[in-house]
Amino acid sequence: MKPADTSIPKKNTPGKRHRTGEARRVQGEAGAPSFNARIEGIDYDVLEELTGYAVRRAQLSIYDDFAATLGVEGITPQRFSSLVIIGSNPGISQTRLAEVMGIARSGVVSIIDNFEQAGLVERQDSGDRRSYMLRLTPDGQRQLKKYKTAVREHDDRVAQQLSADERQQLRNLLGKLCIGPKA
Amino acid sequence: MKPADTSIPKKNTPGKRHRTGEARRVQGEAGAPSFNARIEGIDYDVLEELTGYAVRRAQLSIYDDFAATLGVEGITPQRFSSLVIIGSNPGISQTRLAEVMGIARSGVVSIIDNFEQAGLVERQDSGDRRSYMLRLTPDGQRQLKKYKTAVREHDDRVAQQLSADERQQLRNLLGKLCIGPKA
Questions:
Q1: Cβ A54–B154 below 8 Å, yes or no?
Q2: ipTM, two decimals
Q3: Does the structure show a pLDDT above 60 at B6?
């Protein structure tokens, strides 16, 4: 049994559709296998040559490990990132958080509703409904500290076969992907 | 106007819920900003140090470029991978495809329903309903060839700042992530 007050309620809003058509990889869903990057006897064809697929493949494996580590708390990578950004940018608006996360404002509103319900984040009225200022509550700060420790452990496990130099090299190479002409 | 017969119908199955609680990054959704990996004035805190976040950040940027390139055809990275795997492993079962993709069998069934409707994939009865054999139709083969060309172009653009050696190095480093003790 896990204590009810430390977990964020799983969101299951009726009417939220699955609009891109990508099948969700659902934590704990019956029949959802964990991602195995290379299955014997399968010809991956062009996928083997694509940088994008290598990143996607890594991302799927990392997501599985993250879910196994923090999924029971109702924390996903996206929720974790949101909490971190609110924690290190107190007073940030929902609109700006949406921009940082690269998701629609409606998505952020729903994430924040959830955090508010769990008592981790509070919205402070700035006079303009569109620009609520977001802050962690004292409980949110405590929980985030705990999540950070768990995520660091997860991250170290994920990258355990890389030296510190290789991790830096990987970050540098990833940082050079998809940078438009403006950068 | 795009010719109706070359695009895969967008899936919008009622009742499909958004079960993990992660806000979807929806192609073309009103208000969904494209992902900007570094926004000025934002303190990313621990996220800057996490290998997992670097991978996620790259993945989000790549996804945006993929969507801009192939989204109009109704093709997502997941659908593209499915078509490639079916193309290079003709006769593969839905169960095995689910395993390769790391998604629930129900997700694969829905992807295949969609491809079947678009005339790209056919299910061949193997006598056991659970093990339909999947094959591309002649039209599926033609479309996949076209998609491969578009995806290669997208991938070259995404990785344009990396030399061939750096791309290989990146693939090697990514391949070392999240490998369990068995590997």
A1: no
A2: 0.81
A3: no
